[in-house]
């Protein structure tokens, strides 16, 4: 496998948080959006910011397409769906950006939940109402808190995607 070093750089947790906050602060139609985001993320160049965003888009696409297994969260979610029979996590860290490997240890069998996730299950009115309540409490960009405390049936990535579809948010 060839690694494109021009797209790969080490990001600290603080830089990732600054990046996420800047993405939420400067909408897509913002003039000089990328320059403003780069100014908010200490130690990163404009090109590194753009590359990081492209990797993020690719990760979101892979998650929403069902190529990456959902992580286990501390909730009422059936934890047996997150592990194979041997107790091993089905999603293993790999690659430069620490993405989850898309290979599954289930021998080709898919659960109903996994099949629904690949199809993309529409949000219910109740989930959307909870999303709006979470948005009111935590604000735009804190998708993890909204997912953990309000829309517990959805991942932070799904919450962020839902927010993007409702651009008035």
TrEMBL record:
PROSITE patterns given in the database record: HTH_MYB, MYB_LIKE, SANT
Annotated localization: Nucleus
Domain of life where this protein originates: Eukaryota
Biased composition (Basic and acidic residues): 109-119
Boundaries of every Myb-like domain copy: 11-57, 115-167
Record's keyword terms, sorted: Developmental protein, DNA-binding, Nucleus, Transcription, Transcription regulation
Domain annotation SANT: ranges: 123-169
GO CC, alphabetical: nucleus
Pfam families: Myb_DNA-binding
Biological processes per GO annotation: determination of dorsal/ventral asymmetry; flower development; green leaf volatile biosynthetic process
Major subcellular site: nucleus
Residue span, HTH myb-type domain: 115-169
Residues covered by region (Disordered): 84-119
CDD domains, per database record: SANT
GO MF, any single term: transcription cis-regulatory region binding
Feature: compositional bias, Polar residues: 99-108
NCBIfam families: myb_SHAQKYF (TIGR01557)
Official protein name in the record: Uncharacterized protein
């Amino acid at each position: 496998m060839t690694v494109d070093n021009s797209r790969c750089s080490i990001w600290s947790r603080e830089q990732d948080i600054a990046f996420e906050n800047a993405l939420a602060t400067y909408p897509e139609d913002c003039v000089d959006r990328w320059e403003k985001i780069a100014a908010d993320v200490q130690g990163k160049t404009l090109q590194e910011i753009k590359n990081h965003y492209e990797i993020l888009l690719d990760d979101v696409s892979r998650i929403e397409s069902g190529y990456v297994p959902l992580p286990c969260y501390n909730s009422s979610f059936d934890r047996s769906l997150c592990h194979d029979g041997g107790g091993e996590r089905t999603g293993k860290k790999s690659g430069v950006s620490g993405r989850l490997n898309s290979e599954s240890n289930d021998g080709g069998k898919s659960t109903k939940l996994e099949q629904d996730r690949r199809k993309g299950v529409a949000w219910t009115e109740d989930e959307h109402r909870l999303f709006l309540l979470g948005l009111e409490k935590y604000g735009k960009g804190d998708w993890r808190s909204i997912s953990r405390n309000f829309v517990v049936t959805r991942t932070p990535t799904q919450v962020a995607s839902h927010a993007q579809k409702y651009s008035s948010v």
